[in-house]
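Worked Example 4.2. Consider the chain below.
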Amino acid sequence: MTRVRRSACEVTGRGVVSSLGLSVASFGSALLEGRSAIGDLGELAAGLRFSRGAPVRDFVPTDHFEARELGQIDRFSQYAVVAARQAWSEAGLGGGGVDPARVGVVIGTANGGVDALQDGFRRLYAEKTSPKPLTIPQTMASAPASRIAREIGAHGPVFGVSSACASAAHAIIVGASFLRSGLVDVMVVGGTDSCFGEGYMRAWDSLRVVSPDGCRPFSIDRRGFVLGEGAGVLVLERPGHAAQRGALAVADYLGGGMSCDAGDLLAPDPGGMVAAMRNALADAGIAADAVGYVNAHGTATGANDRAEAMAVGTVFGGRRVPISSSKSMIGHAMGAAGALEALATLAALERGMLPPTIGITTLDPELDIDPIADVAREAAIDVAMSNSFAFGGLDVSLLFGRPGV
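Applying the procedure from the previous section yields the following structure tokens:
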């Protein structure tokens, strides 16, 4: 295997707020055990065609923020900040030691602050009063990045990225690009979304792509995805920077590829997916046969699973690389999906176990893939791929490797 070493940024910190756990360790263990966070939504789903989802159920805002702050921070920003605190701590950067002007933050989101927005509409139309004064800054897509920058003292490039469910993956590529360019030394990157406001759920219900009975990627009886939510954050450092300050990398970011179908708003195009994956391989300077696992976008919609299976087969030349979809356990976390699935990919590399796709009843015979079904598969791999393919034909593929391999 050959690789262009300049492309390898170091992952030194990870953080997560998810429906399967509020720490990287609990999240990784739950995924590898094949535990599902998808459950009955109760009253949240009243009047909807679907009744199951994967909300973050154990997150208590007052455990993380002072009560006076909560009126300034929408839930999607809360998730991102808590995940960023974990990542910053794991990276060993809490005590400083880096130039604030060379630290940046890029956080992706698909939705923005839907909870604060919904509250504003409730006040406006139901209570006939005005929205709260800080509704606008709470709902902006840049809010999580701005708040994280305040907490860690980042004075470099700080902004939000919004590209539907490719948002987090785009944020990771952007952050790595800044590191490679020499503009910064440290980047905090990832994605976040809160997805269980009534109005948002009803909008998804109208689109009729949400499964009424669970998420079964690659299964012949799949009926669509289920909603999830949360945040995933990575700390990336330019090559050699962690060693200079005596820190260790937990993984390498090897490269990323992007493309756009420039076609249908909803229907995926295998050609765009192929381009993103090949661009990632070229960016990393590695051959397709070096990839030992693919964490699929895997939404469990009929069109996406078919298109992605075709694209993976094309890229890997008929080699049936092991593949799984984390969405079978955590649902579709929208702007956070790419970051949560990147963390799942890092768990596979770190632990030598490939997370499963749960819930497959019978593999769709149209899909020529090697699905890791129901039970994690032991495999000591060096390189893994994570895919994010969004509405609007926005395609991103990321490659990660074990540190120094």
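The longest helix spans residues 75-90. The radius of gyration is 20 Å. Compare this with Example 4.1 before moving on.
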